[in-house]
Amino acid sequence: MPRRNSIHKLGGEGVNEIATDPGRTTGLLKARISKSTTMKRLKRDKWLYVLLMPGILYFLIFKYVPMWGAALAFKNYQPFTGFWASEWVGFEHFRNFFQNPDFFKLLRNTLLLSLYSLAIAFPAPIIIALMLNEVRASLYKRTIQTLIYIPHFISMVIVVSLTYVLFTTQGGIINELIFQWTGQKIDFLADPHWFRPMIILQNLWKDCGFGTIIFLAAISGVDLEQYEAAHMDGASRWRQIWHITLPSIRSTIIVLLILRTGDLLDNGFEHIYLMSNALNRDVADVFDTYVYTMGITMGAFSYSTAVGLFKSVIGIFLIVSSNYLAKKFGQSGIY
Amino acid sequence: MPRKNRSVTEILFDWVNYLLLGLIACLMLLPFMYVIAGSFASEAELTERAFFIIPRSFSLDGYKYILSSNSIFHSIFVSVGVTFVGSLVNLLFTVTMAYPLARRDLLGRNTVLNLVVFSMLFSGGLIPTYLVVKALGLLDSYGALILPGAISAFNLIIVKNFFQELPAGLEEAAKIDGCTEIGILWKIVLPLSKPVLATFGLFYAVGHWNNFFSALLYLNESSMWPLQVILRQIVMLSQGVGSASQLDTTVQLPEQTIKMAVIVVGTLPIMMVYPFLQKHFAKGVLIGSVKG
To answer: Tell me, what's the ipTM?
Structure first.
């Protein structure tokens, strides 16, 4: 009876008669049933497919056509000739890009920013989450959480604007204070030495609070009895953090780390673009801004598509290999 | 843990921890408070006093300037309009796609889901997307700010998971009563999903209000620019260190109060919806991380 029900559900009324007598369902019949079942199901769900259409069209037009358009990287695209008529040039754009003296500058700037942020901005939410977990006054904890999540929702333009207003040498409050103490001003916004620290500082300010959410969620799964037992055995708070809390978020840390390595060549276009200016170009130019300048400003569409494709492929390679490494060392990985 | 057992180091540990967290929260908040205070202060006070949270003088010059400046005022309207229409389009596209995908027995469901997930992993890149938008004739139109991001794959999957959790019995009953699929979605599923719709509507709205990149990429016409782009013009390009491209020479060097007032206007809507957002996002982030 249950079996009949399940077939009925899948096939609608037509197959019902046959399904009542399982002995008659030979191979040929089965094929016929599955075909008619398919048609029945399509017909039954026709309104669902109508609803599905706009979404599928969206993904095809704005996600999959561009993926296929990435073939531009192997063509010499001219706006007036169009996509189809443009000639194939193989790996010429990639060769040009790797031989360009700018390539190493871009690679260095991109990687340095990513590595600094991995070393500083990645551990920050973990540390804050551990600190928050030690707070027992729940009202205080909730207030702190509410406050430190706010910057995440502020746009990059506002974050950089705040930085400009606070750090400018022309009456910015930070520089006024530094001037009162030392009699000198520091040009945080134009001095190339300050570019990377400022980017990291902004990243920290914007997301170190919001980043705690996922770790706090992982920590909340820990059985409180473990802490009590540890306390009975005389373990200090540090030892409890080290031996109970940290291990409980280890898999979360590893998953986020794997995802983060996939973004190693991504610095966030908006952020870098807004912070770069004529004086700090040498340290500010990264792959993301290079694609924009070469493609949109200079009109070298094929060349900058090649640069973008190089970035995407390296990103996938990094994510796959770090996942492989994580699994090799006995961790669960992301897939 | 019983209080009497606590040693001196434990108490010290707690105090330092509370203090440090308070300090971090203050660092998050102080820039906002200073800028809000500065936007209501006179220019003279801003140059004289170093740091203040409550201005001694009270001046609305910054806000008066915003009201008198056509470009700023207009850009606020643009941002509000794009945010409103854009979020509605987002919700419409997301819901209509998520609902069929929530049916486990829908033929072709896995293919479509794989299509969606793969688009999260690999993208054609900036230039091909730009060329698609251009080919569709969307350059220099507000459609370019709305359509290319009509569905966030991440949000779609979370909404789909939510629909999947709804009791199937309700839909069965409605079907027996002769309700069509679209009727079920409209009359039964959507009313049950109001909190989810509100949450994702807000998330999408914040995204639209904060969006700078699409406008930079797709809108050449400066009269169409939303607030975020104008904000950058006013605060950054007038600093003297700003990049030379797209410098709007008609904007004269604005004073600090004006810059601060514009920053406040750009932040205000986010602050207004933040309490509502906060109620839901922790949950949203969790659902996504568990089932994504």
So the answer is: 0.87
